[in-house]
Design goal:
It contains 1 helix and 17 strands. By secondary structure, it is mainly β. It has a 17-stranded mixed β-sheet.
Length: about 260
C-alpha cells in the first residue's frame, strides 16, 4: 500500500561518527569527582596560540608532595573543538618521571598516536595507536592492547572494552544542561574481581558552581565542589572522600589559576 495522503516517507537519519575511541569513556568519567587530598595549586599560562604550560604544586599528608610541569603544543590543523593536529603533550614531575603523547593526522580518515612513559630515569611503557574514522564508525588498533568499540548517541554514550585482562563498560547520560550521570563496571579476570561505580554531576551556571558526586561498590562515597571566581581566572575546589569499609577519610583543597 502507498503512503497516506500528505505523509512523507520516513528517512533514516545518519548516525554519524561516534568519535575517537579514547573519547568514548571521557563523558562518563568527567561526571565522577576527581580524588582530592592535601592542598594543590595549579597555574596555567598560554604563551601563544600554539603553546601552553601548566605548573602544579601538590602538598599531601598521605603521599609524597611534589611539583609537576606540563607543556602542550598544538598545530594549525583543527578538525573540531577538541581535535587539533599535530598535538604534543609532555608532563614531568620533580623526580624526573615523564608522560608524553604525540598525535598526528595521517590522512582524511587516519589518525596516529604514540604514548611514552618513564619512571625517573627508567623507561616504563610505550604504546602506538592507529585509528580509522568512517562516516558512521570508528576502528582502533592498539599495539599490545586490542579493544572493541561501543555505540553512541547525542545525549547518551554506552561503551564496552574487551581485552585479555577483562572488560570495562560505561554508560553516560545527559539528562539536561544541569544534570549528568555516569555508571562504570569493570571486571578483572586476573584478579578475579569486579567493581561498580555511580557518579553524577550538577552544574549551576548562574552561580559558576559544579558539584561531582561518587558512590562505588567498595563502600566509598565522595564529592568535589568547584567554584569559579569571575572575572578572575581562578577556580577553587574542595573535595572529601570516605571509605566506610576501611574507615578511611581524606579531603583536599585546590586553587587553579588560568
Amino acid at each position: 500500500m502507498g503512503n497516506a495522503e500528505g505523509r512523507a516517507p520516513r528517512r533514516a537519519e545518519p548516525r554519524g561518527n561516534p568519535g575517537s575511541f579514547d573519547e568514548l569513556h571521557r563523558l562518563c568519567k568527567e561526571v565522577f569527582p576527581p580524588q582530592m587530598e592535601g592542598v594543590k595549586l595549579i597555574v596555567t599560562k598560554t604563551l601563544s596560540s600554539h603553546f601552553q604550560v601548566t605548573h602544579t604544586v601538590h602538598m599531601s599528608t598521605l603521599g609524597p608532595s611534589g611539583y609537576r610541569f606540563n607543556a602542550t603544543f598544538v598545530g594549525d590543523r583543527q578538525l573540531g573543538p577538541t581535535e587539533v593536529f599535530p598535538t604534543l603533550l609532555g608532563d614531568m614531575d620533580s623526580c624526573g618521571s615523564l608522560n608524553a603523547q604525540a598525535l598526528h593526522l595521517l590522512g582524511e580518515h587516519l589518525r596516529a598516536k604514540a604514548v611514552f612513559q618513564t619512571h625517573q630515569a627508567r623507561f616504563v611503557t610505550w604504546q602506538f595507536d592507529g585509528e580509522y574514522r568512517g562516516d558512521d564508525c570508528t576502528a582502533t588498533l592498539t599495539l599490545g592492547n586490542p579493544d572493541l568499540l561501543g555505540g553512541s548517541a547525542p545525549n547518551w554514550v554506552t561503551t564496552l572494552n574487551v581485552g585479555y585482562g577483562g572488560a570495562h563498560a560505561s554508560y553516560y547520560h545527559r539528562a539536561n544542561e544541569q544534570v549528568q550521570v555516569g555508571v562504570e563496571l569493570e571486571a578483572n579476570t586476573r584478579l578475579q574481581e569486579s567493581t561498580f561505580a555511580f557518579g553524577y554531576r550538577l552544574t549551576l551556571p548562574g552561580a559558576s558552581v559544579v558539584f561531582r558526586g561518587l558512590l562505588d561498590s567498595n563502600w566509598s562515597v565522595g564529592g568535589v565542589l568547584e567554584k569559579k571566581l569571575p572575572p578572575l581566572p581562578v577556580t577553587l575546589a574542595l573535595g572529601a572522600f570516605l571509605n566506610h569499609w576501611r574507615s578511611r577519610f581524606h579531603c583536599g583543597f585546590s586553587v587553579t589559576v588560568g
